[in-house]
Design goal:
Elements: E1 7-11, H1 16-27, E2 31-36, H2 39-51, E3 55-60, H3 66-80, E4 85-88, H4 103-131, E5 134-139, H5 143-146, H6 152-172, E6 177-184, H7 190-193, H8 197-205, H9 215-226, E7 237-240
Parallel strand pairs: 1-2, 1-4, 2-3, 4-5, 5-6, 6-7
The protein binds NADP nicotinamide-adenine-dinucleotide phosphate.
NADP nicotinamide-adenine-dinucleotide phosphate binds next to α1 and α7.
């Protein structure tokens, strides 16, 4: 039990990579906060975890809403007096070529993917600083490193997340808080299930390990960055992509 009774907030954790990250922490003894806009699904995940003897709470939350996030963090702090680990995972795509991209699609992706981590990190920072302990893990993407046609909005936010991570790592290091990012490649989730067979085949040719990643691969990197083994690592981006971005 590497994270026994540690309080871990995971945003966007009612499905996909976030759910796997939450489960991985819960299986290591953590009390996980399932934070998602999809209240019903978040509640289902919580019940499923509790039914399996794991510790979890669920909160309906839009990560772009400072007041909403603030109220949830206050509830968590009132009950548990601490937030040990924050995983900024919630993210969306609204792909299109730049010439066809609407302002709305640009703004929506920037809001969730970039404003979300800002809002959630800001909301937990005071408590972590007071405790002189904390781990912040931001889920970026290799698209933020390589760029991708049709994903200017998404790539800009994920590159932004990497810069944000380096900056908070510098700001918070003296308080015993580390901040790191994970840049997954193509992971089997609902987000990548939309890819057609031709695109999938082309992608696989670009991945040295020859297969898509799994949410478990990302969760494993997350546990490592939150663990005591990673206590001297901050401001870094771990790429989990089967070698795609080499
Ligand atoms: P996903 O299956 O679409 O899950 C994302 C979760 O975030 C959903 O539960 C979604 O709720 C929730 N969410 C969306 N907007 C939110 C908001 N404003 N506030 C709170 N929750 C919100 O995505 P995923 O594939 O697991 O991706 C998770 C993260 O990994 C994202 O940051 C993504 O960019 C990154 N990533 C994914 C891949 C990949 O291959 N899948 C690769 C690189 C990076 P709804 O169900 O209601 O929309």
């Amino acid at each position: 039990m590497r994270f026994k009774d540690e309080v871990v907030m995971v945003t966007g954790s009612s499905r996909g990579i976030g759910k796997e990250i939450a489960q991985a922490f819960a299986e290591e003894g953590a009390i996980v906060m399932i934070i998602d806009v999809n209240a019903e699904l978040a509640e289902e995940v919580k019940k499923d975890f509790i039914g399996r003897g794991l510790k979890a709470e669920s909160f309906c939350c839009d990560v772009t809403n400072l007041q909403n996030v603030g109220e949830i963090v206050t509830k968590i702090l009132d009950k548990y007096k601490r937030v040990d680990i924050l995983v900024n995972n919630a993210g969306i795509t609204k792909d299109n070529l730049l010439l066809r991209m609407s302002e709305n699609d640009w703004d929506a992706v920037v809001n969730v993917n970039l404003r979300g981590p800002f809002v959630c990190t800001k909301a937990v920072t005071k408590a972590m600083m007071k405790a002189r302990k904390g781990r912040i893990i931001n889920i970026a993407s290799i698209i933020g490193i390589r760029g991708n046609a049709g994903q200017t909005n998404y790539a800009a936010t994920k590159a932004g997340v990497i810069g944000f991570t380096k900056s908070i790592a510098r700001e918070l290091a003296s308080r015993g808080i580390t901040a790191n990012a994970i840049a997954p490649g193509y992971i089997q989730t609902a987000m990548t299930a939309q890819l057609n067979d031709n695109v999938r085949e082309e992608l696989l040719k670009q991945i040295p390990l020859g297969l898509l990643g799994t949410a478990k691969d990302v969760a494993g990197a997350c546990l490592f960055l939150a663990s005591s083994e990673a206590s001297y690592i901050t401001g870094q981006t771990i790429v989990v992509d089967g070698g795609m971005a080499i």
